[in-house]
Design brief:
- By secondary structure, the chain is an alpha+beta fold.
- The chain folds into two domains: 3-86 and 103-174, no CATH class; 193-308, no CATH class.
- The protein has eleven helices and ten strands.
- It has helices spanning 3-20, 37-46, 60-64, 105-124, 140-146, 193-197, 215-221, 243-246, 273-277, 281-287, 297-308; strands at residues 25-30, 75-82, 95-96, 129-132, 151-152, 158-159, 167-174, 203-205, 208-209, 237-239.
- It has a four-stranded antiparallel sheet with strand order 1-2-7-4, with helices on both faces.
- Helix 1 runs antiparallel to helix 4.
- The longest helix is centred in the middle third of the chain and has 20 residues, at 105-124.
- The N and C termini lie far apart (67 Å).
């Protein structure tokens, strides 16, 4: 087989297996320095838009160059996993971002990535690489866009015409040459739905989000008290926020996920504001045993609820 035929074969094998493992889609781009993202990231950090997320300042060079994360890296395999739920919380309750309804996605996706990596090594041979699920210095959205899986919308989330934006992004960085996909075009047009709907004005200009003004930041990342100026602007979100995604016209194409591990605890969807206000540590532990909500801890969730009352 020629080198090109092999690349073609390996690419096809990987994409077919990714689909079998339940990934929504798989795109591949050439590993290298992200030239366009470098000045954007630098400006964003210099303007303090990361708030107290100090970790965003670390590993600046690694964030922009996957060859610094994996020796001899040649390909970035980007993967999307749908998390859009079939059923949602009661409309008058305190709200949790839909991505956190079920089991913590880090565990779910890591297992799938391990399976994909094992498959690659079994089928192709000695391939070295690393799996990443938003817990390392990798610019997930930039790589997904580069590999044609969608475009980065005005709310700074990855968007896809067929399925909107309610999905997780993960990647394998491999020292294997593959066929590379081309970026897609931007389809936001003149729409400003996300900018108009953000209650804290966190989308300071199209494609730029001030993380330090975002409801997700206040309810998850911020360890201090939530600034009082945002008192009536939180729209009942107690963990994360989906407003910019909920109003996006492309999300009318979202379809419910097929991942059993993302199913919410049966009681979660039926809890009222009163139930949340009276939540005990025991109930918190039971509801969120393996959930991403554990990040905010019981005290953090209580603080958020108190702020919303």
């Amino acid at each position: 087989m020629s080198k090109n035929e092999l690349k073609n074969k390996y690419t096809s094998l990987i994409k077919t297996e990714a689909k079998r493992l339940g990934f929504l889609s798989c795109g591949i781009s050439q590993a290298g320095f992200l030239e366009e993202e470098a000045p954007r990231l630098e400006n964003w950090l210099q303007n303090g838009m990361h708030g107290q997320m100090q970790y965003m300042e670390n590993h600046f060079d690694k964030r922009l160059d996957p060859t610094k994360l994996v020796d001899g890296a040649k390909s970035v395999v980007s993967l999307l996993l749908n998390y859009y739920p079939e059923n949602k919380q009661k409309s008058d309750a305190y709200k949790i971002s839909k991505y956190a309804y079920g089991k913590d996605y880090h565990f779910v996706i890591k297992d799938k990535l391990k399976s994909l990596m094992s498959f690659i090594q079994e089928e192709i041979g000695e391939v070295h690489g690393r799996a990443f699920v938003d817990s390392a210095p990798v610019l997930d959205k930039a790589w997904a866009a580069k590999s044609g899986l969608g475009w980065i919308g005005k709310h700074s989330n990855l968007l896809t015409q067929q399925v909107g934006s309610f999905y997780f992004i993960a990647e394998l960085i491999l020292d294997l040459e593959l066929d590379y996909d081309n970026p897609t075009t931007d389809h936001c047009g003149t729409c400003t739905a996300c900018i108009d709907a953000c209650p804290t004005d966190a989308i300071v200009q199209p494609y730029v989000v001030d993380g330090s003004k975002c409801i997700s930041y206040f309810t998850i990342e911020l360890k201090d008290a939530i600034p009082t100026e945002f008192k009536d602007k939180m729209d009942n979100w107690m963990f994360g926020c989906d407003i910019c995604q909920d109003v996006c016209p492309w999300n009318r194409f979202s379809k419910p996920h097929q991942e059993p591990l993302f199913q919410p605890h049966p009681e979660l969807l039926h809890m009222s504001k009163g139930d949340w206000e009276e939540i005990t540590e025991e109930v918190f532990r039971e509801l969120f045993r393996k959930s991403a909500v554990k990040r905010t801890k019981y005290e953090g969730l209580k603080r958020n609820i108190q702020f919303l009352k």
